[in-house]
Specification:
Layout: H1 2-18, H2 26-72, H3 76-90, H4 104-148, H5 152-166, H6 169-180, E1 199-201, E2 223-226, E3 229-248, E4 256-263, E5 270-278, E6 281-301, E7 306-315
Antiparallel strand pairs: 1-3, 2-7, 3-6, 3-7, 4-5, 4-6
Helix pairs in contact: 1-4, 2-3, 2-4, 4-5
């Protein structure tokens, strides 16, 4: 609320400051306003930096937990990869892309961190846009007023200030980003559809997992099997995969435990996700992944001994 009020009151303050040309030279007035503008910009930059540092510390804490889990499981290579990531991030260096063979837990915490940084950057961009809009509106209003009063030289001084701000690196980067922004990319087609040639097995009524329908009732509309069990989708060829979504039975408060695996040949499987108490839609994003087979390993159900899958969706990056 404080940030909102401060932004809300800034425009009148700017206009008042810039209309005092009769009291002080226009350049002096702009200097005073510039100081107010830069103070706000610096405060927002500090806020952004603090949020990014907090996200980095949370990421390191999560990495240390993953490293402990991997060490206890005697997955020494995977643990060494996580340790290297910790050292890079703590040292303030860009860790670069993950290795394709990174453990799925490592991939998940990296994805969470990157998503958090993206959200912080997006919030920073919105605040910058608001601050600039307030500044430019005030400058434009003053420039028009001076022009109407025949004070062309003073109006040009105001215009030069506007050009100066537009040339700032961060402002130019934001303008370039807005100019190059394209329409949102449409999601790729679901590969895990019977109509696209996909096949499903390993459960009762496996066809229901790949029919494109998510409506289900207490006794119909889903594939099922006694735990532990496997539900396997065959995409019929190796495909690049960027996202796997699947819907678990969600008509009551029950929760499921599962592992999600992928394979290129149906023999060697990689675990890419797991949950102990899952409900409803599950989404697992992947990087640099290729597979022909997607498997849900149903482990537990808090309501009974069956595992229920309503629909599985697979998308390319």
């Amino acid at each position: 609320m404080k940030l909102f009020l401060r932004g809300f009151l800034l425009a009148p303050a700017m206009s008042l400051c810039l209309t005092l040309v009769g009291v002080a030279d226009v350049e002096e007035t702009i200097q005073k306003y510039r100081a107010s503008f830069e103070k706000r910009m610096n405060a927002e930059l500090d806020e952004y930096g603090n949020a990014a540092r907090k996200a980095r510390l949370n990421y390191v804490d999560s990495l240390k937990k993953v490293k402990g889990e991997l060490s206890r499981a005697e997955k020494l290579k995977a643990a060494a990869q996580v340790l290297a990531e910790i050292e890079l991030v703590e040292g303030g260096e860009d860790p670069g892309p993950l290795s394709p063979d990174a453990d799925y837990r490592f991939k998940r915490v990296r994805e969470t961190w990157e998503r958090g940084l993206s959200e912080i950057q997006s919030a920073r961009g919105k605040k910058l846009k608001t601050t600039l809009s307030i500044y430019f509106r005030a400058l434009d209003a003053e420039k028009r007023r001076l022009t109407r009063n025949g004070k062309i030289k003073d109006a040009l001084v105001v215009e030069q200030e506007e050009l100066r701000v537009r040339s700032l690196p961060e402002v130019k980067a934001m303008a370039a980003s807005a100019a190059s922004e394209k329409e949102p990319k449409k999601p790729s087609e679901d590969l895990a559809l019977a109509s696209k040639g996909a096949r499903a097995d390993g459960a009762r009524r496996p066809d229901l997992m790949i029919d494109g329908k998510t409506d289900h009732k207490t006794r119909e509309g889903f594939a099922f099997g006694p735990t532990p069990c496997n539900f396997t989708i065959d995409l019929r060829s190796v495909r690049p995969i960027g996202l796997i979504r699947f819907l678990l039975y969600e008509l009551d408060s029950r929760k499921y435990g599962y592992r999600l695996l992928i394979s290129a040949d149906g023999e060697s499987w990689e675990v890419v996700g797991s949950e102990k108490k899952a409900k409803g839609w599950q989404e697992i994003s992947l990087e640099d992944a290729e597979a022909r087979y997607v498997r849900i390993n149903g482990i537990s159900n808090t309501a009974n001994n069956d595992f229920h899958v309503v629909e599985v969706e697979v998308y390319e990056p």
